[in-house]
Amino acid sequence: MHPSLLPVIVGLVITPFTISAPIIEQPLASRQIVNCTDIQAPYDASCWTTLKLSDYLNNTVTGWNHTTKTCTNTSGPGEDGSACCKPGEPWSTCFLRLGTGGTGDFDCSNVNDQTCNSLITENVNPSIAPEVRYILHNIYTINNFFSNWWTAVPSATVKTLLINQPLVNEIDPIQKTNLILDDLLLALTAGLAFIGAPEVGEGISAAVESGAKLLLNGLQQAPLVAKAVWPEGTLDSQSVQLGQLDTDLSELYINTTTAVEAGLFAIMNDLPSFVAFASSGGFSGPDLLSLPDATSALTMAWNTYILSTAMTANKWHSSPFRDMTKADVESNVPGSGGFGCTFDDNNICTNDGGPPFVFYSDSTATAYTLSVEGAGPSPGQLMKDIVTNQWSTLEQLFDGAYNCTVAGNIGKPLNFFNGGTIDLSCMSQLDICLAPPCA
Question: Which of 75, 85, 317, 417 is most exposed, with the fewest beta carbons within 10 Å of its own?
Answer without folding.
Answer: 75
